[in-house]
Amino acid sequence: DAGITQSPRHKVTETGTPVTLRCHQTENHRYMYWYRQDPGHGLRLIHYSYGVKDTDKGEVSDGYSVSRSKTEDFLLTLESATSSQTSVYFCAISTGGVETQYFGPGTRLLVL
Amino acid sequence: AQSVTQLGSHVSVSEGALVLLRCNYSSSVPPYLFWYVQYPNQGLQLLLKYTSAATLVKGINGFEAEFKKSETSFHLTKPSAHMSDAAEYFCAGSFGSSNTGKLIFGQGTTLQVKP
Fold first, then answer.
1. Between chains, do B105 and A40 touch, taking CB under 8 Å as contact?
2. Cβ distance of B101 and A104 shorter than 8 Å
């Protein structure tokens, strides 16, 4: 299995609070991605990174920011959580192009 | 805009029966297509992928898929379902994304296998 961990695995928070999710990889892959999974929508890309300090938006980036200060870590921040951000968040890594994306175990976030 | 559509959010088959999960795409550029499987409370695992080589792609666990450009389809099949195949399946595409590998996912299909 690809070395990808996500923390925390579960989180309950209140509307308006900041939340940071962490993705850590041990594979030294260049590309890292954050997706959210919601029933009926499959997975949707939030942000992705193509190198240290290089990030770009995905299709559902509003309300989210990311940072990548080291190859191995990709952080997703909800500056002010809303109930619509209740979801399961997955991190993925790849070497780019058509190479396989390897997914982490997910973080289940509940915003009350 | 590109899109991926999975027909049928739930599919139920008997153990030993043929599994057919449908996926269609919309794109003006050649796609790269993937099937992933997700078991309960786990991440996604790649089953197979089409990257413009052979149109019939074989994957893990006895699954295969055929890319049909004329039908803009990439349906997933398995000749004989096993109880352990019960999971959620996602079709995904990468469309002209150069090296970024960004994926667009279908809505997912839950496969139920009955004894």
1. no
2. no
What is the per-residue pLDDT across B44-89, written as a single tens digit (0 to 9) for each?
999 999 988 789 999 999 999 999 999 999 999 999 999 999 999 9
The string of pLDDT tens digits covering residues B4-60 is: 999 999 999 999 999 999 999 999 888 899 999 999 888 899 999 998 878 999 999
Distances (CA, A) of B91 to A46, B70, B72, B104: 18, 18, 13, 9
d(CA B10, CA A56): 34
Q: How far is A14 from chain B (nearest CA, A)?
A: 23
Residue A83 near residue A15 (C-beta atoms within 8 A): yes
Distance CA A47, CA B75 (A): 28
- Encoded tokens for B18: 């043929």
Question: What is the distance between the terminal CA atoms of chain A, rounded to a whole angstrom?
Answer: 34
CB contact under 8 A, A31 and B101: yes
| Residue B89 with chain A: CB contacts under 8 Å | none
